[in-house]
Amino acid sequence: MKLCMIGTGYVGLVSGVCFSDLGNEVICVDNNIGKINLLKKGIIPIYEPGLSELVIKNYKNKKLTFSTDLKKSVKESDIIFICVGTPTKKGGGSADLRQIYNVSKEISSSINKFKIIITKSTVPVTTGDEIEKILSKKNDKKKFSVVSNPEFLREGEAIRDFTYPDRVVVGTNDKKSGKILKSLYSPLISKGALYLQTSRRAAELIKYASNAFLATKITFINEIANLCEKTGINVEDISIGMGLDKRIGSRFLRAGPAYGGSCFPKDTKAIVSTGDKFKINLSVIKSVIKSNENRTKILLDRINLILNKKIRNKKITFLGVTFKANTDDMRDSSSLKMIPHLSKKGALIKYFDPTGYKKEFSKLKNVTNKTTIKEAVAGSDLVIIHTEWNDFKSINFKNLVQGKKFIIFDMRNIYSSTKIKEQGFKYYSVGK
Ligand code: UDX
């Protein structure tokens, strides 16, 4: 089977590389020439543990190729995965599907034999129907099958999530393509992944419903954390106690900053917008979005209280500024709201991130990047642990800085409060 991945973002690049590693011939296509040239040299545009090694290995053994020629690549392939972005439309909440439809039109003029066209991008329910309409204008319906096969991988864990998924969801009513896809995924199924075949529309909705549900779980525990803070309870006990109920499960019950990233904020808005389109009020998800937006304000208020309402000229350090650990992705990171707010209030901010300097803060007053944890925390009044990188998990703050003791606000509940206090630091965490 020859595969073509259109779009070399997270989903397209990771799945393309992993499919090639499973022995398939894969062409990764992108209209960004610069990106394709870098990939050909083994330079990966995103930070993702293990990805670079797999790209180099499979490019060298010729299982993986890169191209900017979409039409030629489609003609040479049997299965085409559409992996382009579906960002939030400007000025609204719905998904902007222009890239999906543009790509579909290009594919449409390159169908020279039977092809399976798959949406791996997160697309609103009924998008597959629209793609089918576009393709039918130029092609006999027997020449292609449009399938939905959402990807559930997480940034930072992408290769493991692709290789050992909980489930593979394939949405198609067409027996032939169902069979082909089951065989494509058989190496993962034989390692324990469950294979679920549904209607195309159901597969499209499973992806949104899953992301909205996970976002709801996080938001739920964040609100419970607020209650814990007022009642002297440790939210981690609540997460464990709830999680032991198999109907609930313990994952995604870690309280912390507002959820961010390239998916949850965008997908929660998009599913609400789909609901509105079909005149269905998805009120739970609407309140999740609102609560998550308010989360940053709650944490900023807490910072204000920790600093006795005196932010001006306070030296504040951020350890980690991306939306979570093990990624260089800044999209919808809560630091994008916190740092500008604190800088505006007159704080002097230093930050250290294992993935380096961030252009997002370049225009802000009094915000500087430091290249070591030590430099970043030196002379600080308040150190905020914003992401849970391993680099931040076993810092001996006492040995790191001599003299002045700063306050630590651990937004990811990494440390034991007793141990930090024993070192002589004031320590605050979330939901305790
Ligand atoms: C998410 C989905 O998990 C994945 O299935 C989908 O394909 C893409 O979107 P990702 O955005 O990479 O993946 O990150 P994820 O690990 O899910 O974290 C999302 C946000 O939730 C982050 O801001 C993270 O810090 C936060 N989070 C996650 C919590 O605050 N608490 C948790 O318990 C889990």
SSE topology sketch:
Blueprint lengths: L1 E5 L3 H12 L3 E5 L3 H8 L10 H10 L3 E4 L2 H7 L2 E4 L15 H11 L6 E5 L7 H12 L5 E5 L9 H6 L3 E5 L3 H10 L1 H4 L4 E5 L1 H32 L3 H9 L20 H14 L5 H24 L8 E5 L15 H10 L3 E5 L14 E3 L3 H5 L4 E4 L11 H4 L6 E4 L6 H6 L3 E4 L3
Parallel strand pairs: 1-2, 1-4, 2-3, 4-5, 5-6, 7-8, 9-10, 9-12, 10-11, 12-13, 13-14
Helix pairs in contact: 1-3, 5-6, 10-12, 10-13, 12-13
Account of the 3D structure:
This protein is of the alpha/beta class. It has two domains: 2-198, Rossmann fold (3-Layer(aba) Sandwich), CATH 3.40.50.720; 295-429, 3-Layer(aba) Sandwich (Rossmann fold). It is built from 17 helices and 14 strands. The chain has helices at residues 10-21, 33-40, 51-60, 70-76, 98-108, 127-138, 158-163, 175-184, 186-189, 200-231, 235-243, 264-277, 283-306, 335-344, 373-377, 397-400, 417-422, and strands at 2-6, 25-29, 64-67, 79-82, 115-119, 144-148, 167-171, 194-198, 315-319, 348-352, 367-369, 382-385, 407-410, 426-429. The chain has a six-stranded parallel β-sheet with strand order 3-2-1-4-5-6, sandwiched between helices. The chain has a six-stranded parallel β-sheet with strand order 11-10-9-12-13-14. Strands 7-8 form a two-stranded parallel sheet. Strand 13 (407-410), helix 17 (417-422) and strand 14 form a beta-alpha-beta unit. The longest helix has 32 residues, at 200-231. The chain is globular, with a radius of gyration of 24 Å. The N and C termini lie far apart (54 Å). Uridine-5'-diphosphate-xylopyranose binds next to helix 10.
